[in-house]
Amino acid sequence: MDVTRAGDAPTTPGPADWFTGDVLIDAAAVPGEGSRAAAAIVHFAPGARTAWHTHPHGQTILVTEGIGRCQRRGGPVTEIQTGDRVFFAPGEDHWHGAAPDRRMAHLAVHQVDDAGQAVVWGAHVSDDEYGA
Ligand code: MN
């Protein structure tokens, strides 16, 4: 058993290489000691979003606040809101973020691969792709 105190796990900003706009990340599960489970609570300011990316073992997001958008490569931009759950298949190229004029928060759940990676990052989502 290992207790991580809130005060020892600071909120971190989403790195500009991987996100557009203001994003705040709180770890919810960190892999280790035989566990591949990883999870985070992510807050997106209006207009903020991830870059295009894939997850080696897929990912589930559960929207916990607000209204957002997501898209898989080749599919339509899809609105999501509080209570909606989205599964992205392993290797499926996609992005997720807030609506243009509403914040959005989600719980993201995924697994790391043998190399400890949970995400493979690509290019930023352009304004045209986002549809702002
Ligand atoms: Mn994702």
Q: What's this model, at a glance?
A:
The protein is mainly β and 132 residues long. The protein contains one helix and twelve strands.
Structure notes:
The protein is mainly β. It has one domain (12-131): Jelly Rolls (Sandwich). The protein is built from 1 helix and 12 strands. The protein has one helix at 127-130; strands at residues 12-13, 19-20, 23-29, 37-44, 49-50, 53-54, 59-72, 78-81, 85-88, 94-98, 104-111, 120-121. The strands form 3 sheets. Strands 1, 3, 4, 7, 8, 9, 10 and 11 form an 8-stranded antiparallel sheet that branches. Strand 7 (59-72) and strand 8 (78-81) form a beta hairpin. The longest helix has 4 residues, at 127-130. The chain starts with 11 loop residues before the first strand and ends with a helix. The structure holds manganese (II) ion (MN). Manganese (II) ion is lined by residues 53, 55, 59, 88, 94, 96.
Main pleated sheet: 8 strands, antiparallel
Radius of gyration over all CA atoms, rounded: 14 Å
Shape: globular
Number of strands: 12
User: Quick one: CATH superfamily?
Assistant: Jelly Rolls
Tally of separate domains:
1
CATH C-level: Mainly Beta
Helix/strand-derived category reads: mainly beta
Distance between the termini: 46 Å
How confident is the prediction overall: mean pLDDT?
97
CATH topology: Jelly Rolls
Q: Bound compounds, please? A: manganese (II) ion
Q: What CATH architecture would you give?
A: Sandwich
Share of residues in strands: over 45%
The arrangement of helices and strands along the chain is EEEEEEEEEEEEH
Tally of alpha and pi helices: 1
Which range best describes the helical content: under 10%, 10-25%, 25-40%, 40-55%, 55-70% or over 70%? under 10%
Poorly predicted residue ranges: none
